Amino acid sequence: MMTSKSNSQNGVLATTPRKIIAGILVLALLYLAYVLFIKDGVVKVSGSAISRLIDMDVRFESYEFLNGGSLEITGLVITSPYPREKYRDENEYQRDWISAEIGSIRLENFDYERLIEYREWFASKITIDSARITIYKDKTLPEPPFEYKGLPATLLQKIEGSVKVYTIDINHMLIQYDERNKHSYSYGVITFNDLTAECYNLANDSAALSLNPTFRIVANTRAFDRAEIEADIRFDMTHSNDAFTMKATVGPVAATTLNSMVAEVLPAVITDGEIHGMNLDMAADDDRSSGTLEFEYSDLKFKVDNGDEGSLGSALATAAGRVIVRKNNLPGGNYRVGEIGFDRRKDRFIFNYWWNSLKSGLVDVMMSDAGRVIKLDEKAMEVQ
Questions:
Q1: What does the domain layout of the chain look like in residue ranges?
Q2: pTM of the prediction?
Q3: Across residues 44-62, what is the average pLDDT?
Q4: In this model, does residue 368 exceed pLDDT 70?
Q5: Beta strand pairing status for 162-180 and 120-138?
Q6: What is the DSSP string of 55-110?
């Protein structure tokens, strides 16, 4: 296991997670196998060799070729090469600290001889079982220098040689994202429990893409232990500007769960209320997202942290907040469909893009007409 200090953490797995993080893990595995097998010309894998390649600590219990055509890796652990408590000692800028424990990964009909001889990365199916992924970021540190982060089609094209994977199954995955933010003394925590997903047609091979250019992800999970989320994401792997679409639904959940998303861009902290559901329909490319968000909620209650509790300043801020934030958004009343619109930050990965596109729709629904004339302050820009 590698323990050397890392100054950049720009390895293949150094990403900001949301639901597609498992896909990025798969891309990393494809890349690692390609480099190891092509470079050495033999099937020789070790945790320390992989660690050196991606600047992460890697270990695993075992790997085994089954029936001559499948590869199974068990007990895979991938972590940043320093303990979490040393984050501020190791990083001058904001970086992701990552810990990933994966019970097993199986690649079916994986032809490593074809990889060695023709540089063709093929598997009929990849199955990822029982994974727990934790990501931590300290946003009180300065942002790193600009570095372009490609969307999935661009990332896949950077892998030399041809890649074709017909199906990827993800079962029983837990993703937890912890963030320290300069606007709050406490840590924000977001969890996605029991994530399952089916992914189809991961390819950069021109012949395969001429038959079907779409890489599709169908996923479902529970956020905050309660909210049921279903998503259908489709990437056009041949589009010159990385176009993709996303449809998602979110089931009922307490309104307080929104605080991690909107408290920094709305002048309020939600204390009570019910979300009855959301339907997101979005199209995007490497430049901008657009679409709609149907968002039903009721009986929203909140407080405004501006001035000491009970003070005149606090009372005025709360009164102003009641004018700015809409308490209800239900069919039959003054119902509003939110407009999604976000210019992509190209030094951020796709998860940030999804997150802020969703936030743009949430804010559009929740802000009153009076609130819409108020320009979002610097805090809104800093959390992008």
A1: 1-237, 243-384
A2: 0.80
A3: 63
A4: yes
A5: parallel
A6: TSEEE-SEEEEETTTEEEEEEEEEE-SS-GGGHHHH-SS---EEEEEEEEEEEET-
